[in-house]
Specification:
The structure is a single chain. The chain has about 325 residues and is α+β, with helices and mostly antiparallel strands. It folds into two domains: about 170 residues, Thiolase/Chalcone synthase (Peroxisomal Thiolase, Chain A, domain 1, 3-Layer(aba) Sandwich); about 140 residues, 3-Layer(aba) Sandwich (Peroxisomal Thiolase, Chain A, domain 1), CATH 3.40.47.10. The protein contains ten helices and 14 strands. The protein has a five-stranded mixed β-sheet with strand order 1-7-6-4-5, sandwiched between helices. Strands 8, 11, 12, 13 and 14 form a five-stranded mixed β-sheet that branches. A two-stranded antiparallel sheet has the order 2-3. Helix 4 links the parallel strand 4 and strand 5. The N and C termini lie close together (about 10 Å). Bound molecules: coenzyme A (COA). The site of coenzyme A has 21 residues, from helix 2, helix 6 and helix 7. Coenzyme A binds next to helix 2, helix 6 and helix 7.
């Protein structure tokens, strides 16, 4: 697919309550030292009374301000989430309502590609830019709803939050890469609703996230490298041409392994997982917005966004800002 994009603005929302590793030591048999050594995470934010749409709204409002557009200029809203407020209506429609855009025709829907969701939304949105001038894409999660807070194997990893971008058409070509491997369905999943049997109401099933951490780890290292190499090949660039890589913020050791395998300095990978943990579909746009706030995304930057998640899904996007426009390859 060959089209163009410009990122007009970005924003992020932290969930209300900061939970440190020391807080988790009081809940499960773990230690700050173990979590830091095995993951790099020292804290995460967890919502108190905000749902996914509330976090999405806060990130969206910041992105709209940052883009210097009116909210009424938005023609489409895509929310990437695996923890929507409810099964229906979509979180994107709820965000539309909370933005006060009910009277306007807005193309609004959610997608679920788990932690790769924002990359999928980015790709979808860039394909829609010939029909909608300004598209709001949001990654928003309240993973705390689906975490078993008594399972030390998962509860130390995840957090809540949201990140958003406003996309419009740019002037250069763009290429994305995204895939999924359905044969790995079972290694990272959360049950949903039961099928109804003989028209009987069944008790809700367990909705907690379960994970085979080592399998996910190996998969992640493989597909992050594959995805980065794919967009580099499409763009006829090498890793040396890239200024910043914003990976899905799952685990410091995963990112370190990828850097070593690709023989790239680890400092090229932006990380804020120390503070946020893994916020699933929100992790890449939160990291992008934070890097933007820190002045790391200026006119001269070539950036790769890359991620993986349940499905198992994965993908990358290369953003080339050289030449005056955000150029996504
Ligand atoms: N605190 C203390 N000990 C813990 C622990 C915790 N929070 N979680 C697991 N352990 C224990 C295990 O029970 C195991 O103990 P045992 O040897 O007595 O059986 C030991 O630590 C090692 O477990 P292991 O699973 O091999 O640890 P690991 O080094 O692979 O780290 C993960 C576990 C989950 C951190 C790591 O596999 C990982 O990050 N995987 C990828 C997960 C991911 O990114 N998921 C999201 C995808 S979007």
């Amino acid at each position: 697919m060959n089209n163009t994009v410009k990122i007009l603005g970005c924003g992020l929302a932290k969930a209300q309550q900061k939970i440190t590793n020391y807080d988790l030591e009081k809940r499960v048999e773990t230690s700050h030292e173990w979590i830091v050594q095995r993951t790099g995470i020292t804290s995460r934010y967890v919502t108190i009374d905000e749902n996914t749409s509330d976090l999405a709204l806060r990130a969206a409002v910041q992105a709209i301000e940052n883009a210097k557009i009116e909210k009424t200029d938005i023609q489409a809203i895509i929310v990437a989430t695996m923890t929507p407020d409810c099964l229906t209506p979509s979180t994107a429609c709820i965000v539309q309502a909370k933005l006060g855009l009910n009277d306007l025709p807005v193309f609004a829907f959610d997608i679920n590609a788990a932690c790769s969701g924002f990359l999928y939304a980015f790709q979808l949105a860039s394909d829609l830019l010939n029909r909608y001038k300004n598209i709001l894409i949001i990654g928003s999660e309240t993973l705390s709803k689906m975490i078993n807070w008594n399972d030390r194997g998962t509860c130390v990893l995840f957090g809540d939050g949201a990140g958003a971008m406003i996309l419009t058409a740019g002037t250069r070509n763009l290429y994305h890469y995204a895939n999924s491997e359905g044969d790995l369905l079972g290694v990272l999943k959360a049950e949903g609703l039961n099928l109804i049997k003989d028209l009987q109401n069944l008790a809700p099933v367990e909705q907690f996230l379960t994970m085979q951490g080592n399998d996910v780890f190996r998969f992640a290292v493989r597909v992050l490298k594959e995805s980065i190499e794919n967009v580099l090949n499409q763009a006829h660039l090498t890793i040396e041409d890239i200024d910043l890589i914003i990976p899905h913020q799952a685990n410091y050791r995963i990112i370190n392994h990828v850097a070593k395998r690709m023989k790239v300095d680890l400092s090229k990978f932006y990380m804020n997982l120390q503070e946020f943990g893994n916020t699933s579909a929100a992790s890449i746009p939160i990291a992008y917005a934070q890097a933007f706030e820190q002045g790391l995304i200026d006119e001269q930057k070539r950036i790769i966004l890359v991620g993986f998640g349940s499905g198992l899904t994965y993908g990358a996007t290369l953003i080339d800002k050289r030449g005056g426009e955000d150029c996504v390859k």
